[in-house]
Amino acid sequence: KMTSMEGSPREVRPPGRYSTCRCRSRALGGATVLIMAILGLSSICVPHRWSSAFTDVKACQRELEVALTVAFVGNSFTYYNDLPHLVQGFLAGSLTGNATSVKVGACLHGGQSLESVWAKGARLKDEAHIGGHDMFPTVRALLSDACGWDVVVLQDYSSGPALQHSRAEGLKVLSKYYEPLLLQNSGSGRTPLVVLYQTWGYRKTNKKNLAIREFDNMTLKLEEGYRTYADQLRSASLEVAVAPAGQAFKRVHDASPDLWWNLYQSDDKHPTAVGSYLNGAHIATAIVDHPRFRGLFGAGLKLQRHWPAEVKPYDDAPPPS
Minimal CA–CA distance to 23: which of 87, 73, 77, 74? Predict the structure, then answer.
């Protein structure tokens, strides 16, 4: 037993078992699939809009019995094409174990790093990009949710982990702010799986910064940076998986340059819906394939050949065909 934020006792379940506000998941192997979409979003549960915590501990416990919970921290690379709910649908449509639904929460702020989104919190208008719900005001509120999280997905500024100075700052911020909350997981007494959402190099040559000038070089440096983040988090006794979206962009680049070009918005940085689908498949894969969640996904990750109607592409763009 432990005492909840409200002072009443609640049961703490051991790692690898469900607790009352979240669900579990296992992932897919070979996630470089580009044109498939999610199975069944009908069994998805959502938290209170713009909420800081669940205060009804009994309700929290009931929800954790049947729900896998996934939190997202990042910027526009995460909210473009409503990536949180895209991943939610991938997972919900693939559940075969005792979990019946997937809950997501997010703290997202366009143009920010892990450091600045911690300092500034979410930007209210960005909630519209994830369907108008499930946004928490601050990273602390999100990670301190009374029910805790099974998975926390972290995404830094698009070039941050690729550059030595900003990578060093990212490591400091992880150590100072994120690790204590992830380890404490204050609502549930359990630590989540941390999934690092490794992004990709820009489509056009970056003439302002020679360190990340070309797509290949920037993607490689981002891979190195996120690997460094993973090493530090593991050294802090956290379980970590990397969702290698950047490496997937590289594989598409090498195999089909025309398709690779279509993974980007016109700004040469952000993903189109097809790009977000690829990214979401890799995030879901990192979860579904993790040993902690394998019991929930007996058949692996199931995807279909259509874009889910419940998820809106960025800026009302037509869904990919």
Answer: 87
Q: What is the pLDDT of residue 61?
A: 64
φ, ψ dihedrals at 211, nearest 5°: -65, -25
CA-to-CA distance for 32 and 30, rounded, in angstroms? 6
What's the angle, vertex CA 51, arms to CA 46 and CA 53, rounded to 5? 95
Residue type, position 260, single letter: W
Q: 194 in the Ramachandran plot: left (φ > 0), alpha (ψ -120 to 50) or beta?
A: beta
- The CA distance from 88 to 85, in Å, is 5
Distance CA 189, CA 191 (A): 7
The predicted-structure confidence for 164-201, as pLDDT tens digits, reads as follows 999 999 999 999 999 999 998 644 557 899 999 999 99
Tokens of residue 242, six digits? 């990397």
Neighbours of 279 (CB within 10 A): 31
Please report, for residues 37, 103, 231, the alpha-carbon distance to residue 234 in angstroms, rounded to integers and kept in the order given: 32, 25, 5
Report how far residue 150's alpha carbon sits from residue 182's, in angstroms, rounded to the nearest whole number.
Answer: 11
The mean pLDDT of 119-126, rounded to a whole number, is: 96
Flag whether pLDDT at 47 surpasses 90: no
In the chain, DSSP assigns E strands to 2-3, 9-10, 37-38, 44-45, 67-74, 101-108, 151-154, 193-197, 240-243, 303-304
Query: What pTM does this model have?
Result: 0.82
Q: Taking Cα atoms as reference points, which of 111, 114, 100 lies closest to residue 143? A: 114
CB neighbour burial string for 119-145, b if at least 16 within 10 angstroms, e if fewer = eebbbeebbebbeebbbbebbebbbbb
